[in-house]
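Give me the 3D structure for DUF362 domain-containing protein.
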Amino acid sequence: MVKDNAGEVFLVKTTDRQEGIEKLFENLAMDGFKDKTVALKANFNSADPFPASTHIQTLQTILDELKTAESGKIILAERSGMGNTTKVLEKMGVYDLAQEYNFEVVVLDDEGAEGWVKIERDGTHWLNGFYISKIFLDAEKVVQTCCLKTHRFGGHFTLSLKNSVGLVAKKVPGGIYNYMGELHLSPFQRLMIAEINSYYNVDVILMDAMKVFLNKGPETGVVVEPSLLLAGTDRVAIDAVGVAILRYYGTTREVSNGRIFELDQIRRAAELGVGIESADEISLIPVDEDSKIISEDIENILEKQG
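Predicted structure for DUF362 domain-containing protein (306 residues):
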């Protein structure tokens, strides 16, 4: 279900990541987080440095904001697609941060069968359905933080919608079927990515676009530094703005061609009611004077190419 004010995307241009994130959270309604269990999905697909993976300062600042909101138990759950998840989280400093902030870290590869919920095929492009982490279905609040980058293995771009792949099982204990094998070989990969998102809710999304991969991806590519951070509640709106930013700096043919809301991930997610239905519904809101010029430039792309 699309939330009220779903099309609002807050943007800040800054050289100070912590201060920028704090400014964004000032514009988000966090009063409902008090004493609530929070599932946190970051982007630790590999142990490669930002923008391949969530910057540790981004994660730390989100945790500070959740503390300020007096949230309850926090669980960061992850399944890395490129490397051993435990080793990835160790190398990226997540366990050290968990000790400091007293949150739980769950490696989804190690979850038993009881930790997964089966989603039947039911009109999706998943041949046998798929399994989604129970943590994100049971949590009272879900916070997601994604990077801004392209994806050379069929996703075309990997933003908030694609980040959801990390809460789907590769294999379920006791089973032999490889769901990630199916996803990455399917001609419907981008539609399948969108379909995951219709089965769980997200309350806050933070996109870290301080640096961006304009090509290749998800773990390497040509880097530019937009020095941007974005936040909102709607995955479709956030991803549409993210695509507009990629286009602004010059990106791959797959991401550049056609209208933004006709790109497979965004179109399918909008069809399923994951988020807003058109670029007309997006309200891009700069949080300070320094952010207005780039906000207007990105808004212009959304108006002409959305």
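Residues 235-249 form the longest helix (15 residues). Let me know if you want a second pass.
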